[in-house]
């Protein structure tokens, strides 16, 4: 028991900067809600399923190792090797990931609350400016119009819709992978520091300053049909096969009208956190191995294109997210490189 307590305290020490940042973000939410008088929007338990699914993920990995021992390597005595393997995995991997797995759901719950408060703190006013900026940057055209000759086919749209919907699953898998990873402590911490920096500074701070709803909500918000062509196309595809993005957009708008906080609630366009987080996945993948690097880079491109094609975001939302995420990634690398994490190096 003393050994276990020592290991847990060491893991807390290694993650102390991450822990302090998350606690500061929680305090910021409480302070904002006190300022606005919206105490009912304080929530830290909307993503409580994350630790449970992480345990299941770890158990699946453990089962795979045990099956490999029993059927392939067959060490003798088998049970002794299994017990020793479990002890190493539990102490080195599971307890290393525990601070992340306990605090990240709290952080994401606070983020959801912050996102739902954006129109309360600063009503949506930037959409017309972003619409004009889109045309200015793209030769007088809207980006969705430029993409339509390439993507405007039901099969292509449904493929993009499927991959875009897989974003949440992909995020969980990358988070679990890095939470339990021991191969490069600096890269691991760089990822998690980048993660909380991007979601808080970009997804909460910048999103509040440049409060905007996005193309799919343009008509509902402003009464203008600037994106009618795109939305009519998506609805025509939806009549044949479900376009999940449309039902998700309807759900978010209803929650917005009801001023209700729920899992995944909140509307915000600039910057795109789907693009920002997908870029983080690609960056950590590229710096680990070429296989996850290629796979997650392709996923990032689909998210970037899909954010425009499915009406979620202006292309500018993605451009800004990419630039600022790369900056925060670099800063997080410098930060992580100065922490006592073990072997590793600062990564660009």
Automatic annotation (TrEMBL):
Transmembrane segments: 18-37, 49-73, 94-114, 151-179, 191-213, 261-283, 290-312, 318-337
UniProt key word Transmembrane helix: yes
Protein name (Swiss-Prot/TrEMBL): Membrane protein
Species of the source: Pseudodesulfovibrio portus
Presence of the UniProt keyword Transmembrane helix in the record: yes
Keyword terms, alphabetized: Membrane, Transmembrane, Transmembrane helix
Name of one Pfam family that matches: PAP2_3
Domain Inositolphosphotransferase Aur1/Ipt1: 129-329
InterPro entries per the UniProt record, alphabetical: Aur1/Ipt1
